[in-house]
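Page 47, continued from p. 46.
Same chain as before, 327 aa.
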Amino acid sequence: MDESLPLISVIVPMYNEEQNVDECILSLLNVDYPTKEIIIVDDGSSDRTAEVVAKHSVRLIRLGKNMGPSAARNEGIKAAKGDFIAFTDGDCIVDKFWLKKLIRNYTNPRVGGVGGPFRNPESGYFSNYINLAVLDFLSREKLLSTGNASFRAEILRRIGGFDSSFRTEEDDEISIRVKKAGYDLVIEPEAVVWHKSGFLDFIKWNFGGGINRIDIWFKLDEYLEIFKPLISVSILVLFCVSSGILRYVSLVFIFFLVLRVAQRVVPLAMKMARIYRSPSYVFAGSVLDLIEMALFQIGCICGLVRYIFSIFAMKLQHVGAKLEKSR
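Result:
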């Protein structure tokens, strides 16, 4: 065993992953990193996930019921012995040098977490777009995805682990909390995890991500972020219903919104065209990126409406409880 390498605990939450377990665990066992422990947390699966896991030389933690990926990861954190904790998902395959590529970025003590991109093993416009867009997003936003992430164990425990109330977007939420604790997050492009995804996954990630991001922003007091999608929608509504000077003012704002969108969309599309050596990627990449942005914005608006209604419902329950007591 190489004593110069710190122990890394790899935690994988699984729920009904019977079809993917073998491939995922075999890739983890094949990782070229001698000082590692692999912890699989079966999150109350109703299929044979736990039975398949038990055939491998890994540690298995079984939860009595489905508690969600955040709670499952927290159980893994409690059991982890490593100074660093890495995460992936049950439907992922990790690169052979995944852990070495992650750990080499921890030389600076200010680095609290390191993650990498996802790669779609299939080919074509959509898969190639996903491969570049995910890395572009993670690098731009400095957020880690729990399908391919690692953190210092002491930091995870100090901030209380994952918030189990989040069943999605929990990776963004914990990334923001790690940064608020004063640590940097690093994206390592060569630390690759493979994950198959289709267009329906793309819709779910972006629309669902927008909905749940509202909850994160409210929880972490990121109020400015909440108003960004509202400003865009408000300007478009103003343009549609206004006349005279207001219409021209809103048109100016729409022009600047288009410029801002173009600043993100065009460079990514041009990069795709250069890498894949086809000018058709300029159009395909632009369209997919615009769809992604639109889905996220719509999700944010729906999430805000949901949040407002949940607050209103809580107030009604509070008033109802008061009236019931007064009788």
